[in-house]
Amino acid sequence: MVRKLFLTLAAAASALAIGGVAWADITVLVPSGSEGDGLRAAAADYAKMKGTKVETVQAPYANVFEQGANAGATKSGVFDIVLMDDPWIPFFAENGHLEDLTPYFKKAGLEGPDNDFLSKSLAICRNPYNSGPYVCLPYVGNAQMFFYDAAKYKEAGVDAPKTWDDVLKASKKLTEDGGGRYFGYVFRGGQGNPVVADFMPIFWSYGADLFNADRSKVTIDTPEGAAAMKTFMALRDVSPKGVESYNANEVGTALAAGTSASSINWPNWVATFEDPSQSKMVGKISYTAIPAGTKPGSSEIGHWTMGIMSASKNKQEAFDFMLWATSPEQIKISAERGNPPVRASVFTDPELTKQEKFRHYPVLMEAIQASTPRPRHPKWPEIENAFGIELSKAVAGTITPEEALKNSQAAVEQITGLK
Amino acid sequence: MLKSASDGTSTAQSQPGGGLERWAERHLRYLMLAPTVLILLALTIFPSLYMFYAAVHRISPNPDLPWEFVGAGNFARLLSDAQFHVALRNTIVFTVVAVTAEFLLGLGLALLLDKFIRRLTFLKTVLMIPMMLPPIAVAITWKLIYEPQFGVLNEIMYRLGLPLQAWAGDVNLAMFSIIVADVWQWTPFIFLLMLAGLASLPVEPYEAAALDGASSWRQFWDLTIPFLKPVIAIALLLRVMDALRLFDLVFILTGGGPADRTKVLSLYIYQVAYRFADPGYAAAISLFVLFVTIVLSTWFMKRMRLAD
């Protein structure tokens, strides 16, 4: 009884919170920034063309997860579609918040999403990963790339970094010569999501991972993990003081201001680096794949995907909009609005690739195809938090790298109940 | 008898159709109070009771799974939760250091302005500004000040030939940096209360003390502090209660890091409830904080004899 009363009140509160959009045919929860802006613009186009009113509710990154999870847990139905960061998919799907898209594809006379989507982009939209039914469609094709100042690297004796040893060699030299005002490398060391996001590609490039293949065992504290940690600590030593609190903004600013020579970052920073009003490094930053360790390098995939909420009362309308928004024509328009695409035809479209601002597309497409998803686990936010605390401690030097691996292993085992 | 004649009830009885008026007079107070009571019930009483209810359940983020009654289980988890212990320790350190610094600075400034530069009302207004700013704006401003590479603080350090610091990113400086920002924002609050307290002090005891040859220091200890005691108690009580709920500065400046050095209870409750989707446990931690706040306030009020 009390629970029902609470759910009703929560639903009423959520409805009030988006009171201004209650008259819309479809309501979409989107993040602030270029991803949300792009979808909002698409929604306006859709309303004009199809007559279906699509309203977007924008929220900061972390709040999108919270509002989506809250709407799912209370079955409020305030959002028909949620734009999700891909590591959230298992949480939403395995807690019954997302609609299985199979019947909607069938009704539309389709087997599923077409083959023009990149295979890695489609794999994350299935739950379980790459094998289960589709629970969302990919919309923004993020995968990390390695950004570096080619001229500075050349000065330091490295032409194009292929391995982490190359990066360390150039970075050491540049930091030593920088006199405390210029650094060879910079990374996101902020506790939680930032430090984990920048450590994972290094972790994978030494053959390490958080879990074994069938997710039955935690595998953090291993010789491969130790090798990755050793490189990470060496990179910390050539990075600016204070990276312990850095997030994407600080890293992007350091590269755009030309105070750091290299980093891992997301492709949406390309627009900033090439904008003379925001960057001193226009035309000077090169893009390449994640360097190799003992194994080939792999980017962390970070796609934005669209899923239909189970509690939605406008599911068919929502599906129709998603199918339209992820069509080749719309993904191309989205790319022109600043969002990396998820379709091969857009990545290779000569109209785009001949433009300077899309010169990173071949590298990005390769990065997505060689990417790895963050471990697909419904408790990923909690796992990421625990791992992020131990990594933060190692970066700050309050515990040894060995202790960080050992503690992370124990913490993730406790969270997941695995041994 | 005369009083009775002028009584509203008697007047109502003497008029035709007085039944409705009589009813209105009897019940009007309840009608007037009803909106407030309803708002209080909806926004305070119900959520508080619901928090108790949630705290004794394990709540799955899956709405189709029933809530599992765990009794005191969520409270028992507090004993073995290392992250909770870290957050509790950090909250205590922050509260003690920040509130002490704010009190000493606020009182000192109030004495200074009250005694020596009383006429500078402009200065008083300027000193109030930090308190009036939204916490999120304060947090973002200090984030920019502390920024290691481009922040103004390190630029000053550089020009003075001093070593650059990571401020919010250094394990040894992060909590200090948050305390400095909080002291900057909330010292004016203590200052304002103290200034009001000083303005209400009686003049006669001071004149008598001066005639007896008491030094300024003696007058401060034996007159000012005892007279200000109720104001001091209220100021400290409000600041301690507020410091226990610190969130904005930590969320923006450090996110609880580095190395968990600035994780405070409010941030941990937020993480547990919204990031880890475990509202039952978050409710239990919230109740713990509520319990500590009530115990602390009651003890403090008794100690300062405010409860009387």
Automatic annotation (TrEMBL), chain A:
Note one Pfam family from the annotation: SBP_bac_1
The keyword Signal is annotated on this UniProt entry? yes
- Where is the protein found, in the record's own terms? Periplasm
| Keywords for this protein | Periplasm, Plasmid, Signal, Transport
List the record's Gene Ontology CC terms alphabetically. Answer: periplasmic space
Chief place where the protein resides = periplasm
- The answer, when asked if Transport is one of the entry's keywords, is yes
Q: Where is the signal peptide?
A: none
Q: Which PANTHER family match?
A: ABC TRANSPORTER PERIPLASMIC-BINDING PROTEIN YCJN-RELATED, ARABINOSE-BINDING PROTEIN-RELATED
The UniProt family comment states:
Belongs to the bacterial solute-binding protein 1 family.
- Protein known as: ABC transporter substrate-binding protein
Q: What is the lineage of its organism?
A: Bacteria, Pseudomonadati, Pseudomonadota, Alphaproteobacteria, Hyphomicrobiales
TrEMBL record, chain B:
Q: Matching PROSITE patterns, A to Z?
A: ABC_TM1
What Pfam families does the record tag this protein with?
BPD_transp_1
The transmembrane segments are 30-53, 92-113, 125-145, 173-199, 220-241, 281-301
UniProt xrefs under InterPro entries: MetI-like (IPR000515), MetI-like_sf (IPR035906)
The biological processes this protein is annotated with in GO are: transmembrane transport
Protein keywords:
Cell membrane, Membrane, Plasmid, Transmembrane, Transmembrane helix, Transport
Q: How does it sit in the membrane?
A: Multi-pass membrane protein
GO CC terms on record?
A: plasma membrane
Q: Please name the Gene3D superfamilies in this protein's record.
A: MetI-like
* Subcellular location, record wording: Cell membrane
Q: Which domain of life is it from?
A: Bacteria
- State where it is primarily located: membrane
Q: Which family does it belong to?
A: Belongs to the binding-protein-dependent transport system permease family.
Query: What is the protein's name according to its record?
Result: Sugar ABC transporter permease
